[in-house]
Amino acid sequence: MTFQEQILQGIPAVLPQPKAYEPQINHAPKRKEILTEEEKKLALRNALRYFEPQHHATLIPEFKAELETYGRIYMYRFRPDYRMYARPISEYPGKCEQAKAIMLMIQNNLDYAVAQHPHELITYGGNGAVFQNWAQYLLTMKYLAEMTEEQTLVMYSGHPMGLFPSHPDAPRVVVTNGMVIPNYSKPDDWEKMNALGVSQYGQMTAGSYMYIGPQGIVHGTTITVLNGFRKIKKSPKGGLFVTSGLGGMSGAQPKAGNIAGCVTVCAEVNPKITHIRHSQGWINEIIENIDELVPRVKKALAAQEVVSIAYLGNIVDVWERFDQENLHIDLGSDQTSLHNPWAGGYYPIGYTFEESNELMANQPEKFKEEVQKTLRRHAAAINKHTVKGTYFFDYGNAFLLESSRAGADVMNDHPTLGREFKYPSYVQDIMGPMCFDYGFGPFRWVCASGDPKDLAKTDQIACEVLEEMMKTAPEEIQQQMADNIQWIKGAQENKLVVGSQARILYADAEGRIKIAEAFNQAIARGEIGYVILGRDHHDVSGTDSPYRETSNIYDGSRFTADMAIHNVIGDSFRGATWVSIHNGGGVGWGEVINGGFGMVLDGSKAASRRLESMLFWDVNNGISRRSWARNEGAVFAIKRAMETQPLLKVTIPNVVDDGLLDF
Q1: How far is Cα 445 from Cα 643, in angstroms, rounded to an integer?
Q2: 418 is in an annotated binding site
Q3: Hey, what's the torsion of the CAs at 136, 357, 36, 588, to 10 degrees?
Q4: What is the rounded end-to-end Cα distance, in angstroms, of the chain?
Q5: What is the DSSP string of 240-257?
Q6: Which region among 160-164, 453-457, 585-589 has the lowest average model confidence (pLDDT)?
Q7: H or E element: which one contains 604?
Q8: Binding site annotation covers 268?
């Protein structure tokens, strides 16, 4: 069968042969035993809903074995034989170009070069899933291939509920992930519902089909590291950045350090992912012995090298040994998947990678105890460095939150509103006041043709737009503009593409609209093929996350999620091609609500109308909320937006003289 025929068949009527487990693939760790015997039967009933009754007797023992061996039913037998990657849009079967674009994005999320655990349909973060099982993938792709512009596909946590009558201006797909009733949103509740096959953790851009490989976070991390060094008033040249994690998102850190121009040491316990990142060129060197690491770092600092070094081992060893050697760390952070601490997101010291996985699966309480012990030791080592002048920031991965829950010494002795911890979230000190408050956030696009020449042309278009805008940009946003012009000019030489022909930069609403319109006009002229717009949910208004995206909101509203919900509702009727809303993402299930979108540009007047309407709202919704929280940069930005759009009228806060409150 051809690729197109396989897509159109959906779930095959004749069972394919079982697939052999491929040990060379980076697989998800075994999930802990959480279902009762009756619940295991329910999980099997739920999985078998996708198949005709005549296949049940064959599939029951197979699915039962998967549940017992891996803690989930992945349906490996139904994994497609064709190669998984983002094909040119013309190669997908279908009646609707928008649907074909979504198929392209789904396959990109599952590309072996992109996905963290491709056979388990997990894109990044240890548990950020596109689907729960392969039957859902097959059925979703079939529905998309059949869809017309008069239909909308409804997705419930990876499950394609079905195609519903709709209209051309409606989203083609509406996605929800993990939208669990709040009182049932604890870690074990999620584990149980995921094991039952009724809910999934979509992370941010995994379950919403908008991941573009590590490039997305390379850019954000580059901006963060550059501004981190600016904050301590030091050049990155000859500076040292120490962090940990080389998985789906965290793997971008060493590349970002290189682009920023410093020495980067990034620890990782998983040998497989470490060597993958090295083979991809995201890391310059791998060192497995701490005795070799110390002199290598000293040499690099003395020579002011720009180099990234992966330490294959536990990050705690690095912090403790660098303290003993009095080796000064300028910037420090952590980007392990601590939103998922008990299922492979963070590993305890004193155990090998294999021993840790064994402990995690068979002695989960002991594993939790060892992780918390390690977090206390990790934080204690960081504290010794910060006394010496290290600037440490939480990178939004719940490091400080989980450390505090473990009893580590990370709490602020003199807490102010919103500053519970000794150390700031990077959003509180860097990205929030310097970028998000002014409307600058991750604007990304994918060239649907798959042609690198189209990507080069879009880079050129975006750069020209930004350079023209910078001529008249206010002083308050000149630095953001300059950083992104520098980024886009170096994008090709830094070889940032992994998977689809994609790009990201930080832009405000004006920049996003002007760049998108320039793309649409180039498509209309036949200069480039279709372009798919999107963004990370880690943005100005897509996400309500009190310990990350909205951690610099100090009016007491950071635990509310009105902004993210309004963002998705507004995007859906202003022209998005697909929208998504998730419980969980980046910092953990139950800790955040985040929304995203995708939009296909086809060169039409309708696309111009949609992009202007939707992108304006997508950004200014968040600026309005940040302005109402009395964030100075956001007040400036929303007043500027009102000057350019007479139909925009936003309530501006009045500021109280603090002296009047001294009573």
Answers
A1: 28
A2: no
A3: -60
A4: 78
A5: EEEEE--STTGGGHHHHH
A6: 585-589
A7: none
A8: yes
Radius of gyration from C-alpha coordinates of the chain: 24
Q: Is 60 helix (H, G, I), strand (E, B) or coil?
A: helix
395 is in an annotated binding site: yes
Residue type, position 3, single letter? F
Positive/negative CA dihedral, 18, 110, 618, 524: negative
Bridge partners (DSSP) of residue 607 are none
How many residues does this entry show for the chain? 663
Using DSSP's 3-state secondary structure scheme, residue 500 falls into: coil
Distance (Å, whole) CA 344 – CA 355: 12
Please tell me the distance from the alpha carbon of residue 197 to that of residue 166, in angstroms, as a whole number: 28
Determine contact, residues 428/626, Cβ cutoff 8 Å.
no
Here the tokens at position 346 are: 């963070």
Residues 6+ apart with CB under 8 A from 174: 152, 153, 154, 155, 572, 578, 579, 580
Residue 396 annotated in ligand binding: no
* The two three-digit tokens of residue 73, written as one number: 């039913």
- Containing 365, the helix (H) or strand (E) segment is helix 364-387
Let me know: does 496 contact 456? Beta carbons within 8 Å: no
Distance of alpha carbon 468 from alpha carbon 207, whole angstroms = 36
Please provide residue 116's backbone torsions phi and psi, each rounded to the nearest 5 degrees.
-75, -45
Does residue 479 or residue 518 have the better pLDDT? Answer: 518
On whether the CB atoms of residues 344 and 29 are closer than 8 A, the answer is yes
- Classify 650 as helix, strand or coil: coil
CA dist 399 and 403 (Å) reads: 6
pLDDT exceeds 80 at position 603: yes
Give the separation between CA 536 and CA 596, rounded to whole angstroms: 7
pLDDT tens for 569-596 read: 999 999 999 999 999 887 778 889 999 9
Structure-token pair, residue 230: 């600016």
How far is the C-alpha of 310 from the C-alpha of 324, rounded, in Å?
20
User: 579 by DSSP, 3-state: which?
Assistant: strand
Weakest-pLDDT range from 314-318, 338-342, 370-374, 563-567 = 338-342
Q: What is the DSSP string of 210-228?
A: --BTBHHHHHHHHHHHHHH
CA distance 71 to 53: 24
**∠ Cα 363 397 404 (to 5°):** 65
pLDDT tens profile 280-299: 888 999 999 999 999 999 99
- 306 CB-near residues (< 8 Å, 6+ apart): 237, 258, 261, 262, 263
Question: Could you give phi then psi for residue 156, rounded to 5 degrees?
Answer: -105, 100
CB 418 within 8 A of CB 551: yes
Q: Is 394:424 a contact under the CB 8 Å cutoff? A: yes
Which of the residue ranges 137-146, 272-281, 319-328, 378-387 would you say has the lowest mean pLDDT?
272-281
Tell whether 542 is in a known binding site. Answer: no
User: Count of alpha carbons within 13 Å of 131, Cβ hemisphere only?
Assistant: 26
**What is the rounded CA–CA span in Å between residue 162 and residue 140?**
9
Q: Which residues contact 623 (CB under 8 A, 6 or more apart)?
A: 437, 438, 439, 509, 540, 541, 634, 637, 638, 641
Crossing angle of the two packed helices 134-146 and 97-110, in degrees rounded to 10: 160
CA-closest candidate to residue 124, choices 186, 193, 216: 216
**Contact present, 370 and 350 (Cβ < 8 Å):** yes
Q: Is 586 annotated as a binding residue?
A: yes
